[in-house]
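Dear Dr. L.,

I hope this message finds you well. Following up on our conversation about the binding site, I have prepared a predicted three-dimensional model of the protein together with zinc ion. For your records, I am including the exact sequence and ligand specification that went into the calculation, followed by the structure tokens. Please feel free to forward this to your student if that is useful.
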Amino acid sequence: MDKTMKKKMEQLKSKLMEIGDLGYISSLLNWDQSTYMPPGGAPARARQMALIGRMAHEKQTDAKLGKLLDALEPYRQSLPYDSDDASLLRVARRDFELAIKVPSAFMADFYGHCALSYENWTQARPANDFQKVAPFLEKTLDLSRQFAEYFPGYEHVGDPLINLNDEGMKASSVRALFASLRQQLVPIVKAISAQPPADDACVHRHFPESLQSQFGVEVITAYGYDFKRGRQDKTHHPFMTKFSLGDVRITTRFDEHFLNNGLFSTLHEAGHALYEQNINPAFEATPLGVGTSSGVHESQSRLWENLVGRSRPFWEFYYPKLQKVFPQSLKDVSLEAFYRAINHVKRSLIRTEADEVTYNLHVMIRFDLELQMLEGKLAVRDLPEAWNARYTADLGVTPPDHKDGVLQDVHWYSNFIGGVFQGYTLGNLIGVQMMEAAQKAHPTIVEDMGCGKFDALRSWLKDNVNWHGRKYLTDELVKRVTGKPLSIDPYIHYLKRKYGELYQLS
Ligand code: ZN
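The resulting structure of the complex is given below.
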């Protein structure tokens, strides 16, 4: 690299770092609002989020940034596709092209609105009050559609929003994938539902919060979550966030009468955090220094939550420990009974508590409803009714209230409507496909889990997935890591194998 290019590359990196840091400052404000901020802080916090959002957007769209990227184009072309600099230039170019299409004033308005809407939701949900969120949601829908209009030429109004989280994917590609998945899933759910229901009463006994927290910390420490570069706090709706590669935080919530809630949220968020903690440190505060998409992020969280945390070998090791932590509630429960209880398949109301088999049906309901709202076919005022109708039709359960119905997930109340939920199902599919590849490379992974050892799996994920940050798009990464394009087959085989054994399906 000649001297001028080297200098320009340094200038570019310092500009990108400022943008990255403003994003992290905004995440810090957001984390604080979701954990410790008193409600009285909400109006000022909305203003502050809008300010930071506008400042970041002004930097993202700075003409000087565009000029630097232009000047560095010959340098990029001289490099191999997957070199760090070429990847940084490629991803920074895509971010720049996207950002300049959206006015800074719009983004400021949007961030400010989201902060107020989130605060409003935290009150509306416990009060079971959909009317309270409806005006906020109407504005969110307007803003979401307005955002899409900055990208004329889209195939579907949801595409620009899907692209924000799962770059390169479209409503049509996700719909096609979901349709074939649904076709395979529905008969499995039906066959299981025809069986006598499994008994999961043992996970609904009393589990003191402090002990749940202590056990969760023990497991995620063994997973490799680094508390020197992270911490865990309580929130309304668990999430992972980060302020640098050295500070990757997770949040959780507990229900003293339902063990799964806190336990599996903790394992899930730790999976997200392991992704971020294991990104190449050279990518710090650059556009490469984050996970590549919602789908791949969820593949990591769902893998640690389910493929590890709900597996039989895992509990062969951890169940005796769990029994020691909760002797009163679990001493008379066998490992087999416990394993069946945490893998109990049930058509239920809450996505985050759903089993692996029905989970994707929850996602499909949200995905379809948000596309209908964006298309203008479903009004916000009709959303609760549409939600309940879909739950009745798809899962055979009708929400008794909005709290556990349309108000249960934070997403629509704190971000755009559209573009986020598909990531969960993509993650389920990608996670299994990656786990297969990991096991091929290290055949002892499953055996290791039975001894509470996760090093080989974690290192494989680090080297093949996490380390690359945003270098590769989802499709590129999946192909590179597993040797095959994204497919529903590994996931369906996994479900049939695991649940076929549990429910004696033919
Ligand atoms: Zn997640």
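In brief: The pocket of zinc ion is lined by residues 268, 272, 298, 301 (CB under 6 Å).

With kind regards,
A. P.
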